[in-house]
Specification:
Elements (H helix, E strand, L loop, with lengths): L8 E12 L6 H19 L2 E6 L6 E10 L2 H16 L4 E13 L1
Antiparallel strand pairs: 1-3, 1-4, 2-3
Length: 105
Amino acid sequence: MPGRNKSSKGFVGILTAELYFPENGSLKGKRMYLRRIRDQVTRQFGASFAEVGHQDLWQRSRIIVAVAASDPRMLEEAFDRLRTYLDSQEWMLTSCVTEVVEEYA
């Protein structure tokens, strides 16, 4: 395409977190927590959200949150805010790993 910058980059940040819900007693209760997390991360961070592990356990969950940006610093800032949010609620954040994937357009 004319005028298109061939060296433009895009970045996708992937945050994988393990959550523990010590006060929860049912899968229905866990779904309420996950719905709240999904609503918060999609609204506040413009991120995609999915539960990817421990779907059959009512006190544990593995989630993935994906964020796209044109600058890796923006992703790091988003990761910091996401970690702060996930670690400041009534559940426990037991692990959190991040990864950045770089794409060239």
